[in-house]
Amino acid sequence: METKDKLITVEATVKAPVVKVWELWTTPEHIKNWNRASDEWHTTKAENDLRAGGKFVSRMEAKDGSMGFDFGGTYDEVRAKEGITYTLDDGRKVEIVFSSEGNKTNITETFEPENTNPAEMQREGWQAILDNFKKYAESKN
């Protein structure tokens, strides 16, 4: 990835073992339940070919139908229950690290920001999605 000062990092500690966190993070039917930055949005489609060279896509749409977009890319590396790196369709790099601490899992996502929206807005959006994942995962224990 590029120089560290250009990267954005979001983090969360989920009260669930890494085996459960990995399953909920990577399974399309679960992705559709947590992948949104706010309650005004939802993920209507999720596909995930979880392997190096595999592709993924999530269709994110405003619930009022006013807008939507595909969020997708190609996996560069997949280390089961440890980490994922991928390249988004627009060429930006993302790294996700899962650190197991018994019945807790720390998730750290680091990504290259895009040039359209302010970096802080992007950080807040990615953090909101990660927070939704945390809430969803903890409700499944």
Structural notes for this entry:
With 141 residues, this protein is an alpha+beta fold. The chain has a single domain, classed as Alpha-D-Glucose-1,6-Bisphosphate, Chain A, domain 4, CATH 3.30.530. It is built from three helices and seven strands. Strand 5 and strand 6 form a beta hairpin.
**Strand and helix order:** EHHEEEEEEH
β-sheet strand percentage = 35-45%
Write the CATH homologous superfamily.
Answer: START domain
Question: Strand order within the widest sheet?
Answer: 1-7-6-5-4-3-2
Biggest sheet statistics: 7 strands, antiparallel
Total strand segments: 7
**Ends: how far apart?**
34 Å
Assign the CATH topology: Alpha-D-Glucose-1,6-Bisphosphate, Chain A, domain 4
Q: Give unreliable regions as ranges.
A: none
Protein topology:
Blueprint: E1 8-14, H1 18-26, H2 28-34, E2 41-48, E3 55-62, E4 68-79, E5 83-88, E6 93-101, E7 104-111, H3 119-139
Antiparallel strand pairs: 1-7, 2-3, 3-4, 4-5, 5-6, 6-7
List the defining traits of the structure above.
Alpha-D-Glucose-1,6-Bisphosphate, Chain A, domain 4; globular; 141 residues; 7-stranded antiparallel beta sheet; 7 strands; alpha+beta; 3 helices
Task: Give a nutshell description of this structure.
With 141 residues, the chain is of the alpha+beta class.
